[in-house]
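Students often ask why inverse folding is considered easier than folding. One informal answer: many sequences map to the same fold, so there is more than one right answer. In these notes we will look at a single instance of the problem. The structure comes first.
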C-alpha cells in the first residue's frame, strides 16, 4: 500500500510537470493535451532509460490511485459534453447535421472495424479501434475554427450541429455495446440483466428530463452560495455516474446524460462557470494518466497500423464526407470545409482507448493506448493545413473529377438543397413524410449490426420494408418539388429534364439503402467481403451519372462553358450558403451585343445567361465566406 508521503509526492510532481509540459506545448503552438500525455509517458511505469550506468524507470510505478482521479476527470469531461448538447442548436441545422453525422460516423466506424479485422484483431478489439480512429473531436474542431477566425462562417452552425449529433451517437454506441465495456467487477449476470439495466437507465433519465428537472430547476436557482451549489452539482454528477454503473452502463454515460438533462435549463451557464476549473484540473490528470499507460515499445509495434489508419480516415473525412455534404446541398467550398473539420481528433479518441483498455475481453489494451495519442496528433497536424487551404484545394481537386460526375453532382445538390438545407421560404417542402420510414430504416440497420443470424433476419426485413416505403414517399415529395426548382441556369430545362433528374436521385437513395443492408448482411459472414456491394454501388452510380448526362444533353448542349474543369466549384461558390449560381438569366429580345464584361450563352428555348469572364469570376471564387477578401 502506498504511503501518505509517496501519495503527496506523486500528485505534487505530477501537477508541476503537467504545468511545465502544457506550457512547452503551448509555446510551440501545440495542444496542451500533447504536453500532458508526454509528461505521463516520461513519469509512468513503462519508461526505462539507461544513461551512464544509471537506469531511470519513471517516477510513478503504482498508478492505481491515479486511475481513480483520472476516471473522475473523464466523468466531469463527459458531463460538460452533455451540457453542450442543446436541442436549440439543432433546430436550424437538424436535418443536414444529422445526415452528415450519421454518414461521417458510420463510414469511419466501418472502415475502422475493417482495418482491425484485416490486422487479425478480435471483433471486440476492432470495435474500440474503430471508435478511437473514427470519433472526431468537437472541442479541437471548435478551437481550431476560433483560432483561424471562422466561427462566424455560414457552415459553422452545421459543423457544431454535426458534432453534437456525433457525440450523442458515440454515447449510444457505448451503451449498446455495454457487454464490451464492462470490467470484470461489474459484468452483468446475463444478457437480459444487461438489457433491463440499460432500459431502466434510459427510462430514468427520460423521466428526469421531461417531468422532474423542468419543475424543480426554479427552486435550485435560489442557491446563492457558490460552495453549496458546487457541492450539489458534484453530488448529482457522481450519483448519476454511480447509478449508470449499477445498471451495467458505463459511468461516463451517466455523467453525459445528466449533463444533457441540464443543457436546456437556466443553470447551464452557472454549472459551466463554477465547475470548469475543477474539470480542467481532473481532465489534466486523466491525460497524464493516459500517457502513463502508453508503452513506448508498443508504440513502435503499432506504427504500421497508424500508417494505414491516418490516410484511411483522411480519405473518409475529407473526401467522402465532403462528397456527402455537396450532394445534400452545400456549395463545394463549404462542403470541403465541413469535411476537413471532421478530420480532427482529440479527447474522444483517448476516451474510447481508456474504456477499451479497461474492458472485459479486450486482448489488445496496450495497443489501444499506444494508438490513440500518436494517431490523434498526426491527424490534427495534417487536418490543420488542409482546413486553412480548403478554398484552394477544392479547386485543384475538382479538376480530377470527370465532367459528367461534376454535372450530375450539381443536379443532385440543387435538388436536395431545397429539401435538406434551411430555406427562407417553405415553397419546396421538406420531405417530412419520409422521416418516419427513414428513421425506421436507420434504427433497424443499427439493431441488425449487433445481432447474429438468425436473429439478424428480422431487423434486416424491417429495414428493407422501411427503405421501400421511404423511397416511395420521397419520390412523391421530389416529384412535386423538382418542378419548382430552377435547373435552367445550370443548362437543364426543368420542363424536359424532370423525369431524368428524379430517376437519378431515386437511384442514388435506393441504391444506398440496398447497399447498406447488403453490407450488414455480408459483414456477419466475412467483414472484408462487404467491400463488394460498396464497389458495385459506386460503379452503378457512375454508370447512372453517365447515362443521365448523356440523356440530358439531348435537350441542351452541356458544354465546358457551363460545366467546365472548374465548373462545379464555380457554380457553387458565389456568395454564402443558399446562393445557387453566379449566372444571371436574360431573354434574347432586347439584349444588345457588345457587353464588355460578359459572354452570352443561349439555349434552344431562347433563354441565355450572362456568365462573367474568368478574371471577374476568379475574384468571386475566393469571396465565399470562408476566405473573405482583404480590406483595402
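Output (designed amino acids):
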Amino acid at each position: 500500500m502506498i504511503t501518505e508521503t509517496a501519495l503527496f509526492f506523486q500528485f505534487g510532481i505530477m501537477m508541476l510537470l503537467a504545468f511545465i509540459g502544457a506550457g512547452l506545448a503551448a509555446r510551440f503552438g501545440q495542444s496542451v493535451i500533447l504536453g500532458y500525455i508526454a509528461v505521463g509517458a516520461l513519469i509512468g511505469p513503462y519508461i526505462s532509460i539507461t544513461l551512464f550506468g544509471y537506469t531511470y524507470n519513471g517516477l510513478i510505478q503504482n498508478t492505481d490511485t491515479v486511475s481513480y482521479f483520472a476516471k473522475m476527470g473523464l466523468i466531469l469531461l463527459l458531463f460538460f459534453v452533455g451540457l453542450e448538447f442543446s436541442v436549440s442548436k439543432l433546430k436550424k441545422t437538424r436535418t443536414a447535421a444529422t445526415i452528415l453525422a450519421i454518414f461521417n460516423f458510420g463510414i469511419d466506424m466501418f472502415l475502422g472495424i475493417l482495418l482491425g479485422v484485416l490486422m487479425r484483431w478480435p471483433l471486440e478489439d476492432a470495435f474500440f479501434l474503430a471508435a478511437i480512429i473514427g470519433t472526431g473531436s468537437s472541442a479541437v474542431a471548435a478551437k481550431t475554427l476560433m483560432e483561424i477566425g471562422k466561427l462566424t462562417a455560414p457552415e459553422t452552425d452545421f459543423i457544431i450541429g454535426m458534432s453534437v449529433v456525433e457525440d450523442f451517437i458515440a454515447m449510444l454506441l457505448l451503451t449498446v455495446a455495454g457487454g464490451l465495456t464492462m470490467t470484470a467487477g461489474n459484468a452483468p449476470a446475463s444478457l437480459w440483466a444487461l438489457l433491463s439495466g440499460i432500459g431502466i437507465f434510459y427510462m430514468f433519465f427520460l423521466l428526469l428530463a421531461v417531468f422532474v428537472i423542468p419543475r424543480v430547476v426554479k427552486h435550485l436557482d435560489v442557491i446563492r452560495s457558490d460552495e453549496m451549489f458546487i457541492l450539489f452539482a458534484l453530488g448529482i454528477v457522481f450519483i448519476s455516474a454511480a447509478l449508470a454503473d449499477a445498471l451495467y452502463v458505463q459511468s461516463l454515460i451517466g455523467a453525459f446524460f445528466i449533463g444533457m438533462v441540464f443543457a436546456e435549463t437556466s443553470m447551464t451557464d452557472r454549472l459551466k462557470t463554477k465547475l470548469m476549473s475543477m474539470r480542467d484540473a481532473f481532465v489534466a490528470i486523466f491525460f497524464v494518466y493516459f500517457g502513463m499507460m502508453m508503452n513506448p515499445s508498443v508504440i513502435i509495434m503499432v506504427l504500421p497500423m497508424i500508417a494505414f489508419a491516418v490516410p484511411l480516415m483522411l480519405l473518409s473525412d475529407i473526401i467522402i464526407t465532403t462528397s456527402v455534404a455537396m450532394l445534400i446541398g452545400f456549395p463545394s467550398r463549404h462542403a470541403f470545409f465541413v469535411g476537413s473539420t471532421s478530420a480532427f481528433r482529440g479527447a474522444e479518441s483517448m476516451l474510447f482507448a481508456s474504456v477499451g483498455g479497461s474492458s472485459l475481453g479486450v486482448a489488445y489494451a496496450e495497443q489501444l493506448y499506444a494508438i490513440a495519442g500518436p494517431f490523434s496528433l498526426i491527424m490534427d497536424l495534417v487536418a490543420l493545413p488542409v482546413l486553412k487551404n480548403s478554398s484552394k484545394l477544392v479547386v485543384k481537386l475538382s479538376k480530377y473529377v470527370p465532367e459528367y460526375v461534376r454535372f450530375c453532382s450539381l443536379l443532385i445538390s440543387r435538388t436536395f438543397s431545397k429539401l435538406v438545407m434551411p430555406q427562407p421560404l417553405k415553397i419546396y417542402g421538406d420531405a417530412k413524410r419520409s422521416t418516419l420510414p427513414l428513421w425506421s430504416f436507420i434504427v433497424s440497420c443499427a439493431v441488425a449490426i449487433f445481432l447474429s443470424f438468425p436473429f439478424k433476419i428480422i431487423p434486416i426485413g424491417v429495414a428493407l420494408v422501411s427503405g421501400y416505403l421511404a423511397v416511395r414517399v420521397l419520390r412523391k415529395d421530389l416529384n412535386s418539388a423538382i418542378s419548382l426548382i430552377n435547373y435552367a441556369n445550370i443548362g437543364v430545362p426543368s420542363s424536359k429534364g424532370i423525369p431524368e433528374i428524379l430517376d437519378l436521385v431515386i437511384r442514388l437513395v435506393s441504391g444506398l439503402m440496398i447497399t447498406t443492408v447488403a453490407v450488414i448482411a455480408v459483414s456477419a459472414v466475412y467483414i472484408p467481403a462487404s467491400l463488394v456491394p460498396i464497389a458495385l454501388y459506386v460503379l452503378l452510380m457512375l454508370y447512372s451519372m453517365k447515362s443521365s448526362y448523356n440523356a440530358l444533353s439531348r435537350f441542351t448542349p452541356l458544354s465546358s462553358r457551363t460545366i467546365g474543369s472548374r465548373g462545379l466549384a464555380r457554380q457553387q461558390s458565389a456568395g454564402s450558403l443558399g446562393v445557387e449560381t453566379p449566372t444571371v438569366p436574360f431573354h434574347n429580345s432586347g439584349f444588345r451585343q457588345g457587353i464588355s464584361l460578359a459572354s452570352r450563352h443561349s439555349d434552344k428555348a431562347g433563354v441565355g445567361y450572362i456568365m462573367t469572364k474568368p478574371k471577374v469570376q476568379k475574384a468571386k471564387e475566393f469571396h465565399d465566406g470562408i476566405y473573405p477578401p482583404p480590406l483595402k
